[in-house]
Amino acid sequence: MENYRKPLKRSTLLNAVFCLITAVVIGLLTWYYRFQDHQFGHLHEFFGGFQTGIGSGLLLLLIISLINNFRALSNEAKLKEMYILENDEREKLMWLKTGLACLRIFIFSIALAAFASGFFNEVVFITLSAVLFFMLITFVLVRFYVFSRN
Predict the structure, then answer these.
(1) What pTM did the predictor assign?
(2) Phi and psi for 121 in degrees, rounded to 5?
(3) Do residue 8 and residue 64 come from a single domain?
(4) Domain-terminating residue out of 68, 87, 106
(5) Is a pLDDT exceeding 80 seen at residue 42?
(6) Could you give the C-alpha distances from 4 to 46, 63, 141, in angstroms and in order?
(7) Hey, is 121 helix, strand or coil?
């Protein structure tokens, strides 16, 4: 169990660092959107609120992860339970199949949206095509990396 405790401590430290960075970024964005004069008016406020909401959600997930890690590090039974959950082969296979199905759905949806947007707006078409290209390149590179390791 000691071999699992070390990576968990490192993960907890990284989560704490990311938590701090996220809180600072949210604070800076809030200050920026609150006290700066902007030419876009209500649209700028919408983007500020959206970014703050995404950052707050990320911060909440990091805090929950920190709490779970601290509980596991302080309680041997919870540490063992977390270890079993992370190393369960059935769980890993279910996550793998779910991720692959979601990837296929996302790629198909973005390709369909890019095709449809080509009839209406050139900027949206180029943006969606770039996102689709990035997703496909990332998929191919990760696939080569994973198969080269095994």
Answers:
(1) 0.69
(2) -145, 120
(3) yes
(4) 87
(5) no
(6) 43, 21, 29
(7) coil
